[in-house]
Amino acid sequence: xxxxxxxxxxxxxxxxxxxxxxxxxxxxxxxxxxxxxxxxxxxxxxxxxxxxxxxxxxxxxxxxxxxxxxxxxxxxxxxxxxxxxxxxxxxxxxxxxxxxxxxxxxxxxxxxxxxxxxxxxxxxxxxxxxxxxxxxxxxxxxxxxxxxxxxxxxxxxxxxxxxxxxxxxxxxxxxxxxxxxxxxxxxxxxxxxxxxxxxxxxxxxxxxxxxxxxxxxxxxxxxxxxxxxxxxxxxxxxxxxxxxxxxxxxxxxxxxxxxxxxxxxxxxxxxxxxxxxxxxxxxxxxxxxxxxxxxxxxxxxxxxxxxxxxxxxxxxxxxxxxxxxxxxxxxxxxxxxxxxxxxxxxxxxxxxxxxxxxxxxxxxxxxxxxxxxxxxxxxxxxxxxxxxxxxxxxxxxxxxxxxxxxxxxxxxxxxxxxxxxxxxxxxxxxxxxxxxxxxxxxxxxxxxxxxxxxxxxxxxxxxxxxxxxxxxxxxxxxxxxxxxxxxxxxxxxxxxxxxxxxxxxxxxxxxxxxxxxxxxxxxxxxxxxxxxxxxxxxxxxxxxxxxxxxxxxxxxxxxxxxxxxxxxxxxxxxxxxxxxxxxxxxxxxxxxxxxxxxxxxx
Length: 602
Known about the structure:
Rossmann fold, 4 domains, 26 helices, 55% helix, single chain, alpha/beta, 7-stranded mixed beta sheet, elongated
């Protein structure tokens, strides 16, 4: 019997090792729980019956049974007491040894998991000493996806910090990450940085604050910045990716001059980033036809369903990216709550509403009013986008529109801004999707690559493109992004990004389109047209204050160039007169086209 017990225990240990390697942590824990329950129940039944048969005292039998069941999980058995009940050669002995096998297995698995888990954590903690550290604050499905996307970098150790793992420990372990939920990690100080082996002059430290609460993200980033400063970590060693408000949070975290901060700061608003992602992956110009000289041959009619936070951000991007020489722009917006949620939009974007054909319908995307609108206008539409806030409802609307178009023989794509991605639906084609959790978008800043290079070109200094972008103010970043996104898409659509020469007429049409885009961007930024009298008055002040930008008043948000293309020559002439320098605003639009063309070719 001793021999049989040893064989079963060895088999249980071997089985535990095999299953540990074969199953993921969630499955291992569930299986151990199941085998423990079966072994416990079986042991109680077996030893309870045997002990009750051996004694006349119920209380004694209960205590003996509890002790015997506990001894099972320590690798000890009392086979003799059960043999007296059923006999040595009874078939019931098979059940006895099977229950003990499960008990041995449960013990072996628990020990292996505890030892392996502790060993893995110690190994991963040791690697913090030689790797860069990627700390992800906020444990959500999106942050875990982001973590998996960067887990392939062998020189980076991933550390998750959050108030609770919410049962996601297995996923973090599978990507080779560490998990901290203690108070020191949640309120980081110099001691926590020592745990992470973060030191002055050693490697890189990157914080990605991606929790759903943007206020907590900012607060954590500020606490971490204080801790980094306390141990003398250089700004150039640090980066932060923050889910928040770029306009309000970006510059306060950035290291500028003598002000300590993170070396690289990427703050993003999800609604703004989703709308940019949609415009980059599915630009409006792809839905427009152009002649051989880059002049649009159709109008740009857009249907947008949804006018919440994402919808409002999308309206701005659609207007900016939907301006083309030769085309009239118009956008129809459907939202049943539009009138009750558009107050700040109308205030902030009053210039857009005043200067562009924007019309609103206070109806749902599933309403008869929308169906009637499609019935009357589907042949004229060039771009359909959905941003209703609820992913399921948005897909339902998209499918309804596709079915409507099927009956008309039309194959116009329908685009949707979802919670964390953008999608493209089209009859007869698989759904395409692009996620914000892509590491190249958030971590690598891929969406801003061309904008950084454009900004670097215009800075014209010896600093790196990365440094110039880091020192760039919010408005200038937005300006570079708008120009780069628009022109890159347009030149690619026209095939001018691959070395094709531009005719004078084509360059002129593209420059006119760029001016329309530029005007839309400034209107979206709250600017209005500066009167000629005010423009000349600013010219008169140049002799007193040479720092004045004659055509632009940033305080009053006015610009003299918010005029039709034909009037730019007059603006250029007036400014040249007052500044004594040759100014040609039309040429600046042409130069923008040529610079983006060269950057794309390079």
